[in-house]
Each structure stands twice: as C-alpha cells, then as structure tokens.
Amino acid sequence: MCTHLMISVPSNPGQNPPDTAKTYVSGRAMELPGVLEQSVYVMPRNQAWPLQAGQGGTTLQWKNPYGFVGIAPSGRAWASQPAFCDGINTEGLSVGALWLAPGTEYPPIGTQGNQVSYLDFPAWILGNFASVEDFLAALPTISVVGPAPGTPSYVPLHFIVTDSTGQSAVIEFIGGKLTQYKCTNGVMTNWPTYDWQLTNVQNYFNLTLVGSGTSTTGAGNPVGGGLVGLPGDSLSSSRFVRATILSQGFSQLPADGTGWLPAPGVFATTPPSKNPPGFAGPEQTAVMVALQLTQICMGTPYGMLLETVQNSLATTGIPATTPPSSTTTYGDYTLWTSVRDHTNCKYYFMSAFSGILTMIDLSLLNFDTTPAYPNNASIAVLPQGDAPWCADATKLLTPATSVAGSGRVR
C-alpha cells in the first residue's frame, strides 16, 4: 500500500502585486510488509540503458539527458540492477511507482517494439523528460512490458508522474493495455483503479475543511466539524479520499500567502525582505506540510497493521508430526516517506525507524562527472546503517539567567 499527494504554496508571499509563482511539492509513502533493503542512488547524465541488455524484457536502448536521484531496492537480490520505485530529476519531474493489485496485467514480453520493462519504466521517464506533456507525447513510441501475473518476477504497479508546473499523469496497465489519466492534485493510492477512485471520492462532496471558528472559541461548527464522515481507516479508497480532501486546504488560503506564510506568522513589512529567525519560509513550510500530510493520510507506523501467519516447522524445531500453529506478526507498515520539491529540485526522505529528514539538493550535484552504473553513489535508506536516527540536542541546552528586577528568567 502507498499514498501519493501534492501541495503548492506561493514562492514569494506578500508581494504587491501578488506573485503568481508557485512552489510545488509532492510526497509519497512506501508501505510493504517485511524488510526490504533500499537505497537512494544518483544516476548521471548520459547513462547507457538498459543497465543489463534484455533484463526484464527491455530492448530499447537510450542515454538519459537528465540526471536524477531515486530510491530502489538494494541488497543481494537487487545488486545487479537498481529498479527505481521513486525519484526526481534535474528538471523537477518525479515518478512514483505504487502497488496496484489485483488487476495489473502488463503487455507480454517479446511481442512489442521498443520494449521497456516495467522495472525500467521509471528510469526511462526520469532520464528523458522535463515535463508531463513531453512524457505523454513520447509514451506512444514505446511498449511497456512485464511478466504475467503469478510468475516470480511479477510486481503489480501503477505510476504517477509529476512535474514542476504541478501537472501529473497516472499510468495503469489493465487487461494488458496501457491506460493514462491526467490530474492536477497528484493524489494516487492503490486498488481499485484510478477511475474508480475518482468516482468514489465524489461521494464525499459534502465534506469541508472550513468551520466558523477554532477549537479555542467553542463556537458553532469548529474547524474539523465539516470533516465528520471522513474515512479514517487504512484502505486505499479511504486514503485516496483523505489525501484529496485534506490537500485542498492550501488552495483555499489567500493565494499570495498573506496571513499564513511564512509560517507560523506574518511579517510586519510588505514585501518581506527575509524570514524572521525561527520562522519557516515557503520552501520549508511546503516540504514539512507535505511530509506530515503524507504520513497522516498513510497513518501506518510499524506494528499498527497485523496479520496472522503459520509458524514454520523448519525454523521452530517443532516435530514434523505436530500440526502447525498460527501466530500474529506485523503486516504492512510505512518503510519510508519521500518528499520531492519540484520547484527547487530537492529530494527528501525519512525511513521508518528514523526521525531525521534527509535532503539531497540536485542543483549541487554534478551529473556530468557523477560515477555511472555500477559505480554510482548511493545512500542506504532501510536499513540505514550507521546514520543517526535522532538529533541529540543535550549539549545545546544553556542554563536560564535571571533578568534583574524583572522577576523573569530567559
């Protein structure tokens, strides 16, 4: 299970006349059971693809004009070739691969021209396109192929592509055929298919984020009262509704950011010259809200969703004549959350067992000299190795000093 969404904020709030520039930020969560080793990889410009000829059915050959960073499974099972499930390129275009089962059926391998394996599809997009429009224009020139359902290498996926203008495209493979949709809110979850999700969300047209007052006023319909009936479970249809409704809040605030940017207050001067100390500017606000909103819509920390499994006699030492017993263990959980700043070309990620948000600034990487596969640079996401999982501020604490005659300490 996975959730994808997008928000935007004014890039330069408080301008007169209002600045129409937007900072677009998207976020997604990757949720699966078990332990899947994953890393962030840096892919240079002019990398030759496919990384292994014929791997997974890819017959098309290309060199990518755009460098990108993205997350792919690592470890022994995937060491031969990173298959990206998430990433962003130097032009601010991102790709997310999310689970879609049942129903996903790729065109078969070996029957199409210019074949690109579904495992290479994200890399083809990230390496070749700067916008959703360019991607959709080139999509008919290739055939995305994959194994049949039930085979060992089959993974049921659908894809969402988002660019720096806030446009998104959803790609699904149903009945062996490619289906595409355009969207402007960047919301996608899992099964059922995207068209069904769009129909279902209309059932919640009566929900609103607006109330007559906050909880501190105690008056009438407080903020949140208009969300009574918003589904709160972990089903993909419920997460789609939550992501759609909750991400609309930013679009209902003043378009120039007056009164809400920079968070958490407003500037005394217009236009603002800089952020006051300790205040969050547009970029920080957008990134952190996208991270928080993605985690709220997903809402599945480790150990919150459980499943019942049969004990393995081979590993428990129980005699073979003993009937197998069942036990409860953890099920799906959020392995990692990523945030892509499409405007500033930055990639953020946070793993399941770390509270530290890690950032890669693509503008500071030289994608012309970055080592190519198989020597490309990488950072472990899960497990994260020796990276710190919290920031120890103990040494930053300073003793309070009294202010003479004031009766106050500071």
TrEMBL record:
<dbReference type="Pfam" id="PF02275">
    <property type="entry name" value="CBAH"/>
</dbReference>
<protein>
    <submittedName>
        <fullName>Linear amide C-N hydrolase</fullName>
    </submittedName>
</protein>
<keyword id="KW-0378">Hydrolase</keyword>
<dbReference type="InterPro" id="IPR029132">
    <property type="entry name" value="CBAH/NAAA_C"/>
</dbReference>
<feature type="domain" description="Choloylglycine hydrolase/NAAA C-terminal">
    <location>
        <begin position="20"/>
        <end position="247"/>
    </location>
</feature>
<comment type="similarity">
    <text>Belongs to the peptidase C59 family.</text>
</comment>
<dbReference type="GO" id="GO:0016787">
    <property type="term" value="F:hydrolase activity"/>
</dbReference>
<dbReference type="InterPro" id="IPR052193">
    <property type="entry name" value="Peptidase_C59"/>
</dbReference>
<dbReference type="InterPro" id="IPR029055">
    <property type="entry name" value="Ntn_hydrolases_N"/>
</dbReference>
